[in-house]
Design brief:
Number of strands: 4
Oligomer: single chain
Structural class: mainly alpha
Number of domains: 1
Helix content: 55-70%
Length: about 450
Amino acid sequence: MGKRLGDIVLCCSVFLPLLGRLFFPRVRDKAAISLSASFSDPQMLGIYVLLLYLIYRILCKPATLVRACVWPLWPLMTMVIVAVATSLTSSFPLFSLWRSIETATVLLWGTLVLGRVREEGTPTVFFTTFYVMSGLMLGSVLAALWLDPKNAWMVEETGVQRLSVQSSFVMMGAYLIGPIAALLSLAAFVRFVLSSRPQYLLVCGLLLWLAYASRSRTGFVVLVAGLLVCSLYLFRISGRSTKTGLFLLGLTTLVAGIMALNTDFTSALIHAFTRGQDEANIVGLDGRVSIWSLAIKAFQQSPILGSGYGTYPIWIGSSGHFHNMFIELMVTTGLAGLIPAFIILAGLLWSLLRLFCSTPPRSIARQILALDALLMGTAAVLANQTTAGAAYYSWELIALVLLLTALPVILQPAKSRGRAAKNPVRRVERFIPMVPPGRSAAYWGSRL
């Protein structure tokens, strides 16, 4: 019980800076950053507290640091080292250094999680706690909708209203609400199919509404891709294919029927996905293509170490980032930081492919664990193609590091079963019968 509680505290601790930024919103001024100002920054103050806690945990087991030098965390460690090095040439060196410390803190957290997951043989506690903390973030959005509805909605130039909270006590954009709600709704759907508990279906419906209200195209893509991945996996589980097929057939029939009978609903659905923008804007990915073109030109100015971690050599509009994790790292850390990021992506995709192609386990708990990993991987990979979240400390980076530490352990049972199938008899023990009364063991041993 003590270790389990410690795992829960460990997983919750990494959200502390994120909650500080969420509940005490504050815009950072790169030019006015100083050491004294960091203690009034809620996110940096959370980083300091988290760092002290992680250092205490590491001092209890100093060998934990060795795990940062091995797979799957060594590419992230390399990226952190490069990020620190870029602060020497950055136009805002202290800001780049602070962002590096934030990412390094998640790396230290990952080494502790990796050790605990390997000791326990399952990341279930960490996955569950991650979902609970993500649900807490969405709960703050619902609270803002109730307490401060005027600042909970954002109206775009096209007239589309989106759920994007910018109140005085909660700040959470639609770009984050959408993917989180999509991931949690799919996790609830999986638990409904495997455990047949109706409360999960109610939770799934609420989360789907949040994903729809955010009007996040990234959230829509994560939802559709995640539903496809988990459905294909569920079809391969004995006894679950019929239930999954009936649910998907009913959902498809319902949506198709409403779209055929109600043209207003179809128009509203298309308007929600496109957010009322014209074809040129949609083809240009809402201005992302033009930003990426500028990023390539900026990369050519400093291709090795980039412009400095978290700083930009050009003006990229009010968005404040390049809307892609790899383009963000390409510009800010150069090739030195981009190559480790590609190694992380390649390793992650390979592990997810192996997990998807492996035989589904018989245990429901293991089935849920495998599906959680597949869904989290789908969300992490797709979300970072349109946002730059995982390039820095963020919900996306926490999910990515947790997935990297959990996948080797999740794949281990399948690997062991594969070895057992290839070589079922590894050692044959000599059979010695029970010694009958009146005869010594030496007597019967000499006759065998």
